[in-house]
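hey so i finally got around to running the thing on that chain from the lab meeting. sorry it took forever, my laptop kept dying and i had to restart like 3 times. anyway pasting the input first so we r on the same page abt which one it is
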Amino acid sequence: MNERQKLMARLSAVQFAAWELHMYLDTHPCDTAAYETFRKHSAEAARLKNEYESKYGPLTITGTEDADWLCDPWPWDLERSCD
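ok and heres what got predicted. didnt touch it at all, straight out
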């Protein structure tokens, strides 16, 4: 696994954890420990997303001001073909 794939895997894992905590907090809104963990994971996900996008390009259309998001590779591809 190359560095790009490792960063994407880490981002996916942290986003998944944040989403699961988000859903848990829908039914347990007074769990302050879970809320703090959610905030930590959300901040880490934002940091990792910024890191990924600065190195490899945008993950979504809102991550750029130009058409870079149209260029290959998509996050699940291995090679970039727009360069």
